[in-house]
Amino acid sequence: MKKIQVFWGGLLALCPALFVLNQKSGTVIKVYLTTVLLFLISAWFFKRKSTVLLSLALCFVLSLSVVTSLYFHFEFDTAFSTMMATTFINTSQKESIDMLYYNYRYVFWFAIIFLLYVSLSYYLSRRVTERKLVLSGIILLLYTGISIFLYTVSGKTRSEDFLISERLLVNSPLYNFSPIVRAYNDAKLTDIVMQAKNTYDYSWQDKGIDNYVIVIGESARRKDHGIYGSDYPTTPFIGAQHGSMLLFNQAIAPAPLTILSVPASLAKVHHADDVPLTAWADNVISLTNDLKLDTYWFSNQGGVGQSNSLITAMAKRAGHHKWNETIGFDSSLVNELAQVIPEPEEKLIVLHFYGSHGPVCERFPRSETIPFTVDVYDNCYLNAIAYTDKQLGRLFSLLAGTRPSLIYFLITGWYATRKNTRIITIMISAIRPNNLLISRCLSGTAAQSMPLIPVGRCFQINIQPVITIGCSVTGWVSHITRSVVAVCHSVIVIRHHRLSRSWTAIKGDLIMMGYRLKGGDL
């Protein structure tokens, strides 16, 4: 019986190491040994009533780390990353509750693992002498101290990018907290983006546009939009504008999550994972400010949208910015636009919709429900798309009496059904007055312009920047790399997380380059 208990205890201690088997053997050994030491320390805490809560807290974080690995392994076939952590710390309480609701089985597994870890701590507290338990704590402290000393003498701590806490966590069963430490540190650095100064060298032509509008949508597949051939009439208002818009069937973007995809799409960056923070300050808002246009940013991402993130850093560079304190209907943003449209100055207005983000049944008024399908969840999802389309229709009407240019794109296409299907896609369309996509195309050192190429020619270009913008100018396309002005833009198409780095060019007035799908037809 004792051997069986020892076996199960060793197996439970092995759980965290199972998810790092693809790393160096030294890392796996460190994770396993520190797991054993932490369980012995937890057992020592369990021996006294005054420290039982510390034992429970330690079991809690150990269980949470294991379940996090389980979730990302089985749902995404990947490890928890800084990008995921950034999204997590910028998630509202309601979104967190919704996520737990949709993934209730992992809550169940967390409870099971937590009870097993508590039981193991209790068992060890009864079977192992206090002297050995205290010795395990001393060994862990010595190991931590030696690690810090080695990092210091090696000179690694002198690097501004090096975080001792992050490195220590990586080699422990709490390695899933390492990305959170990094994400919190990066969030503090967004002040650098907000305070950075930019200088531009460009020339421009005034084409008579008064109101530039960028609408950022969320969470819907292209195939579910009527204008893209869906069996359901979800986009009658967009469809009515088909004759005066550019509609794109394929597009690329730099990241699969909103928290990184929005800033990487709006900034002049080479690669989202390897750029100095100040590079994010060179974005569409900064450039428009330099052009002396009024800038507005209205967001329906809730009060959490004001937390430190790259999106926040960009939005706060706008002359006027506002976040809804609670996540309501996107119609509120259209109301905000209606108030500023009459202003006589040229302006850029960014509306960050909540779109079809889950829970989808809360994205539109129930009184406006359209019976698309008998499935309740799918019907809510389609109605969320239709409601977004209705708000775009309101925008069309509000802008009709002005000289506008509008671009709408979905930054993510996450859609989770009961079958756990996840496909990320993007739609982009633009209304263009006088058959022009934009009114100003940059040239010179800031924009790094390329030679003009006739519209409609299909080609490939092997260049480094992730983002390439195309501006329609009297029947020619000026391919401007890594720079965005007014409604020049690029977007994403990603299927799951399996990416291959390659470049593609699209026929028509706009080209987009970046990551391309590895298989799969969207």
From TrEMBL:
Gene3D superfamilies: Alkaline Phosphatase, subunit A. The keyword Methyltransferase does not apply. Pfam families: Sulfatase. The chain crosses the membrane at residues 29-46, 53-74, 106-124, 133-153. Keywords: Membrane, Plasmid, Transmembrane, Transmembrane helix. Residues 211-403 form the Sulfatase N-terminal domain. SUPFAM superfamilies: Alkaline phosphatase-like. Belongs to the phosphoethanolamine transferase family. PANTHER family: INNER MEMBRANE PROTEIN, PHOSPHOETHANOLAMINE TRANSFERASE OPGE-RELATED. This is Sulfatase-like hydrolase/transferase. It comes from Pantoea phytobeneficialis.
